[in-house]
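Example for tutorial group B:
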């Protein structure tokens, strides 16, 4: 545990290094609170990808996990993208390899491949389009209705998007271990504990959990929902607890309760302020992608960014 003085010192050092390096710091909504607080922008993958693509700075420090930093590196070939903790991976992204996607494509040649952003650059390179939790429905709806969709890598999100869009989706055998562990019993208990609260859950949760909640949304959707639900002032949050910091900061007069205590993604919490400082000091760890992979993954990401979003 850092003292307040240490946090202040690290924050000042990071600000100085950021100026020296002409760097932009991006942090995902699931990062530790103190890391979110020193970032120039906090957001979900879609927002952060867009910001990275439009940034004027030459260096981007991505406080998140590998696939997120790879996404920034894919979209910003002229910038140096740094991931402060090299081993910050994502168990969901690890569920799909490029070879497995090629095999599935061979079995379903008529399918369009939609890769959830939680996949490696190699998997994105095998895909027609990417999506995030914020735009999965819009992306699925944008695909030619005559063609099935092979949805890589989260089966729960694929199931939800397919059902909502009324589209045939071939599901991947993968899920986020954190979201998939949230149970209907957890939701029922949290409703008993906070009967007045609105309940939000991430579309990576199991279908039976999503049936019980008031709002299914990714982190950006949850932030918007909590801000707009007057007269409701309390919310149960069915996603990684990292989001609660931002929810409270943006809605100081409202109450937020985690749907359970174990909604904590360990790899999303690996990055500390000391890691961010070291990353800027030593310019590490530079995300490097093979150019053919980067170009093809970039096409799938650009195809996603071109899909108009439903307000
Ligand atoms: O889209 C993202 O960044 C992820 C992985 C989750 C969310 O809802 O923010």
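The residue assignment follows.
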């Amino acid at each position: 545990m850092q003292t307040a003085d240490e946090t202040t010192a690290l924050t000042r050092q990071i600000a100085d290094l950021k100026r020296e390096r002409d760097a932009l710091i991006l942090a995902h909504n699931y990062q530790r609170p103190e890391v979110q607080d020193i970032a120039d922008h906090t957001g979900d993958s879609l927002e952060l990808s867009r910001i990275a693509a439009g940034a004027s700075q030459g260096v981007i420090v991505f406080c998140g996990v590998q696939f997120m930093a790879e996404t920034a590196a894919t979209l910003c070939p002229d910038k140096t993208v740094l991931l402060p903790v090299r081993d910050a991976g994502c168990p969901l992204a690890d569920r799909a390899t490029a070879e497995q996607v090629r095999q599935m494509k061979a079995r379903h040649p008529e399918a369009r491949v939609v890769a959830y952003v939680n996949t490696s650059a190699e998997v994105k390179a095998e895909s027609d389009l990417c999506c995030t939790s914020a735009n999965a429905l819009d992306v699925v709806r944008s695909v030619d209705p005559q063609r099935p969709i092979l949805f890589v890598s989260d089966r729960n999100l694929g199931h939800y998007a397919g059902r909502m869009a009324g589209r045939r989706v071939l599901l991947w055998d993968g899920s986020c271990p954190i979201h998939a562990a949230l149970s209907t019993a957890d939701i029922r208990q949290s409703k008993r504990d906070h009967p007045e609260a609105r309940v939000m859950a991430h579309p990576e949760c199991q279908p039976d959990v999503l049936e019980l909640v008031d709002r299914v949304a990714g982190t950006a959707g949850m932030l918007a929902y909590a801000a707009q639900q007057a007269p409701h002032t309390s919310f149960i949050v069915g996603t990684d607890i990292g989001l609660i910091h931002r929810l409270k900061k943006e809605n100081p007069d409202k109450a937020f309760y985690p749907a359970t205590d174990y909604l904590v993604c360990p790899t999303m919490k690996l990055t500390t302020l000391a890691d961010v400082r070291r990353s800027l000091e030593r310019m590490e760890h530079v995300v490097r992608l093979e150019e053919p992979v980067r170009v093809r993954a970039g096409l799938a990401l650009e195809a996603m960014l071109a899909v108009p979003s439903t307000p």
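Residues 28-29, 44-45, 117-118, 132-133, 202, 218-219 surround (~{Z})-2-methylbut-2-enedioic acid (CB under 6 Å). Compare this with the pattern of hydrophobic and polar residues in the output above.
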